[in-house]
Amino acid sequence: MEHDITEILGMIKFTENGLVPAIAQDFQSGEVLMMAWMNAEAIEKTLTSGQVHYWSRSRNAIWRKGETSGHTQTMKEFLIDCDGDTILVIIEQVGPACHTGEHSCFFTKIL
Amino acid sequence: MEHDITEILGMIKFTENGLVPAIAQDFQSGEVLMMAWMNAEAIEKTLTSGQVHYWSRSRNAIWRKGETSGHTQTMKEFLIDCDGDTILVIIEQVGPACHTGEHSCFFTKIL
Fold this sequence. Notes:
The structure is a homodimer of 111-residue chains.
Chain A (H helix, E strand, L loop, with lengths): L4 H7 L8 E7 L5 E7 L1 H10 L3 E4 L4 E4 L8 E8 L6 E7 L14 E2 L2
Parallel strand pairs in A: 1-6
Antiparallel strand pairs in A: 1-2, 3-4, 5-6
């Protein structure tokens, strides 16, 4: 790892609730699969385990993607944006990313 | 347009500040270029003009992407996610998307 965890967390601008949005993109197709939230612990667990973790705002708990469904996300790359307030994780998705069973959460086309 | 504006806005779950995150993805390369925020007015202006508009949280104002830089975003598709709390706009980007001059805002690779 190029940076240690403390340094990485220092580069990230969290909301007042200690969260940061994370976009998951398929490493092969480039498809944007979902957006969810991470807190510091989810970031640390993602970077150290290589398995993508999020913070569930509804359950108020750390959540390893796929822990119940089996639809895991293996991290390929972890990037932050220019002002450090958004994460982009490039991932390998097992099964559908969406809880509805759709491959991507963005299946509703408005225009 | 398949849906009218009132119907579309009713499908979107805004934060308590009346905002929703919007991911901009390049229609050709599939690259994720940036994430910014939209309010109801930005969504309406985006859908009716075809030019992507955001809400600037720092300036507290509607912002047509490229209005000063010329680095406009023309909307190709407008999608929402399964729970309606994130937007994905597929766009044609003129020039760099990032205010730093980088093509994408996600140029900082952590891992």
